[in-house]
Amino acid sequence: MKLYPINSGNFKLDGGAMFGVVPKALWQKTNPADANNMIDIAARCLLIEDGKRLILIDTGMGNKQSDKFFGYYHLWGNDTLDSSLKAYGFHRDDITDVFMTHLHFDHCGGSVNWNANKTGYETAFKNAHFWTNANHWQWATQPNNREKASFLKENLLPMQESGQLKFISNVNTQFTETSELGFGLFFANGHTEKQMLPIIKYKGMTIAFMADVLPTVGHLPIPFVMGYDTRPLLTLDEKALFLNTAADNNYYLFLEHDAHNEIITVKHTEKGVRLNETFTCNQIFN
């Protein structure tokens, strides 16, 4: 098995939204904001080369939305999904499986593109299966008013219409040892229904893809919960369970949204679970 970080692009989000009720005086120490209160956010995906399978975890925002839409998110940097794949010698047509932690637009938007004539949409990975779970699919395609703006039908329906959509089967246990894709999963419901965190065994290490359970290093304190979460009190319990497990077992936490920290480990302290060490992906994967 080989792992590769795939940077699909960077953007900015409102720091207050990212930290909910936490005062700016606290969160700006780890996530400094610009003059418009926006903080740096990454869309760092993960590519798993495992035998004949090439599995991409999450796909970023994509590029099919309008300039007005992207104007809300202040894109920055030169990274794209295609250029990041090319840097490791891959093309999107090589991908056999696309695993989506959840279906918010910044995690799955790159799964669907405009067609050649820009008259409709098509899947962006023509040779891949697209993996979610039935509970979350129903949640996303019949969205509540709180999340409706995050679940975009143009990101979702083409995957189903193409016949490429697949569902993970075992969603009833919070921690699963394995899945159809060969790695374990942690199911979390605080941010959205049945978000899935991949847990990958790699060279004697356990690497957890943190998605929106731990967006950045600044979110390590248990009460530091995003304003986007639909069930914040549940997020508190899920974070506590996962971070204590990570500290007990020396997990390496792959941060999807932290623009400045790629992989971390955590430790127990008198204040709770806190940062232990910080690594680049190259240090861990090579």
Question: How would you portray this structure in words?
Answer:
The structure is a single chain. This protein is of the alpha/beta class and 286 residues long. The strands form 3 sheets. It has a 7-stranded mixed β-sheet. The longest helix is centred in the C-terminal third of the chain and has 18 residues.
Strand content: 25-35%
Shape, principal axes of CA atoms: globular
Biggest sheet layout: 7 strands, mixed
Radius of gyration: 18 Å
Q: Secondary-structure element sequence?
A: EHHEEHHEHEEEHHEEEEEHEEEH
Structural class: alpha/beta
Distance between the termini: 11 Å
Report low-confidence residues grouped into runs of 5 or more.
Answer: none
* Strands in their spatial order, largest beta sheet: 9-10-11-12-13-14-15
Total strand segments: 15
Mean pLDDT: 97
Q: Work out the helicity level.
A: 10-25%
Number of helices, where a helix is a run of at least 4 consecutive DSSP H or I residues: 9
Topology:
Layout: E1 2-14, H1 15-19, H2 24-27, E2 38-50, E3 53-57, H3 67-71, H4 81-87, E4 97-99, H5 105-108, E5 112-114, E6 121-123, E7 129-133, H6 134-141, H7 153-161, E8 165-168, E9 175-176, E10 184-188, E11 195-202, E12 205-209, H8 232-249, E13 252-254, E14 263-269, E15 272-279, H9 281-285
Parallel strand pairs: 3-4, 4-7, 7-8, 12-13
Antiparallel strand pairs: 1-2, 2-3, 5-6, 9-10, 10-11, 11-12, 13-14, 14-15
